[in-house]
Structures are given as structure tokens and as C-alpha cells.
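User: Quick sanity check before I run a bigger batch. Here is a single chain. Can you write out its predicted 3D structure?
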Amino acid sequence: MPEPQSTGATGASEGAMAATGMGGAMDLAMSEAETLEKRPDNNGGPADKPRSLWSDAWHDLRRNPVFIIAGLVILFLVVISIWPSAIASGNPLKCDLANAQKGSSPGHPFGYDGQGCDVYTRTVYGARTSVTVGVCATLGVAVLGSVLGGLAGFFGGVWDSVLSRITDVFFAIPVVLGGLVLLSVVTSSTVWPVIGFMVLLGWPQISRIARGSVITAKQNDYVQAARALGASNSRMLLRHITPNAVAPVIVVATIALGTYIALEATLSYLGVGLKPPTVSWGIDISAASPFIRNAPHALLWPSGALAVTVLAFIMLGDAVRDALDPKLR
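Assistant: Done. Predicted structure follows.
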């Protein structure tokens, strides 16, 4: 029975091998392999290296207009807090009763308050106090709450039960009422008593967030594998659990920063927070309230600055939450 003839393609391939020899065939094979390595993947783009949660979050934040706007506002507030004289050359404590309740004038765009103080200068310098209180209180709350909550969630047992009952006690204390009671006996005009009060009543919220995150993270397979390999508790906490449990704490702390700024203004408005000669938006709002009909500008400008600042930090916290929560992707 006659054998079937080879196809044209097979003949051409054999002819190419005969013409080029074994070395030529190997070169063709290597060339095809290199072409396959450079070929795009199924998604139509080059294969990318796997990215971490933080790199993915930063990739999303850079394209989020809410984050960009909030970040620019906060950057501006930080700059004027560090260097207020860059945009306000006056003295916030220099007042002239002859200018009391006057409106806008050249060199004084926001007018004067009831004591004849320049509202523009005091509004600019008030940003330093509000940002300082908000940042320091947030850092204190985040560190204390994360440490206590993280240890309780990791070790559990009696330590977890005791801390849970202590947090319940602090949650039962109204913040404003607690400030009226605790800060009414403080005579210092610095920001530290107010910061200490916020840390004292603010850490339970962060503590519960950190506790839940640590309990979830320590159940993952990589933590169990590290424990089976003999890793110490400190190594598991610092190397494996903390990097994967800190994201919710960052989100809550970022949003809480704006809340602490508003709380400082509220306590200062009630007369138990910051006290003169400290320059604060809450103090200025309280001093301008009796003159709201005759000089509304003295109330509107510090109130507007406070509202924009709180809104910027809340928007920043929302953007960070959306970027760090995989469920929202």
C-alpha cells in the first residue's frame, strides 16, 4: 500500500531544517520562545508584577478627585500652620477698640471682630491650633488604642475580657459632658489638657477596631504557619499581623482627626477648652456670637474655616477607606 505523501507545510519545514542544519533549527525554536515571552497576556497588556494592598491603594488614590482636592486643602492648612506669617503679616493679639466690628477694608479683607482684632489674621493663626490639636490627639488615640486593642485581640483570655469591660465604661461617658466636667478645673491655656482629654476618651473606639482586625488577621494561614515554625509572639505581631491589620485603624483615625478638630472648637466655644490668649477658631466663634447681627463677618469667617477643615479630613478619610477596602473595588 503506498505511503501518504507529506503535506507542503511539512516539506517546507523539513527543507528549512535541511538547509539550516540543527543549529538553524535551534535558533528558530529559541526565536519563537522569545516571541512567546514578549507576547501580551490574555488581558491585552503586558504581564505585571503582583501589587500589594498599599500599592493598589495608592494607585487608586492618585486617580480619585476627592482625595486630590482634600489633600490640597490639608496641605495648604499644614503650610499655614507651620508658617502663618507667609500669608498673614499682622499680629493676631493686636487689637484696637476703635476698629471694633468694622467691615472689610484695604489690608484687612475679613474686617474686625468685637474687640477690634483683625479677623483675617486670627483666622489664619487659628489653623495652627486646630491642626496641632487634631494631629496630636489622633496620634495619641491611634497609638494607645492600637496597642491595647491589638494585645487584647492577640492574647485574648482575661486580658481581652478586662479591656472590653473598661472600654464599655469609657463608651458610656458623653464626650461633651465629660469635657465640661474634666476641663472646667483646668487653668492652663495650652493645648495639652485638651489633647489629653481627647486621648482619654477617644482610645476605646480605635481599640475595638484594632482588636477586631488582629483577631481576623491571626486566623490567616500565614500566621498559623509562622506559629508552627516557632516564630515568637513579638515577631508574629510585628511582622505578620500588624501590617495586615493596620488598614482599618488608619481609616478610622483619618476620619476621627476632623472630628477632634470640631470637638476642640466645641469645647472652646463652651469656655472649657482652649483659653485666651491662645488663638482658636472656637474662641473666635464664641466671642463673635453676641455680635452676629452687627458684625456677622466676625462669625462667618472662622466658622467657614472650621467647616472646610473638618470636611477636608472627612473626605480624605472616605477616600482612604474606599482605597483600602477590597470589597469596594
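The radius of gyration is 31 Å.

User: Great, the batch can go ahead then.
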